[in-house]
Every structure is written in C-alpha cells, then in structure tokens.
Design goal:
Structural class: alpha+beta
Distance between the termini: 33 Å
Radius of gyration: 13 Å
Strand order of the largest sheet: 1-2-3
Strand content: 15-25%
CATH class: Alpha Beta
CATH architecture: Roll
CATH topology: CBS-domain
Shape: globular
Helix content: 25-40%
CATH superfamily: CBS-domain
Number of helices: 2
Length: 62
Amino acid sequence: APPLSVAADLPVSDLIDRLQEENQELAMVRDPDTDEVIGLVTASDAFESITGQLYDPLDLGA
C-alpha cells in the first residue's frame, strides 16, 4: 500500500480515523498549499496530542 499522506491542517481526530481506516502507524504530513512533504506523524503522536505523554518503555530516557 502507498504511504498515507495527510494535510497539515487535518484535525487530529480525523487523522486518527484515517490511520485506523488505512491500518497505518505513520503518515506523511503535507503543506496544504504546496503539497510538499513537511513532516511525519505517528499514531502515538496523534494520541499523545489528546491524552498527554504515554508511557513507552522503549522510548529513550523513559
């Protein structure tokens, strides 16, 4: 499957829905005006933006 690509102005709740629908953990973030890739977002990033920092024993410095 091609990598998931989302606009930078997509609401977080919609991002989470898209990640779940596409069974993806990662999405490329694109500038909505230029369509240029400006970053990456993970499912964890999206959840943490809502819930706060999640404990992950694999994170460095955890």
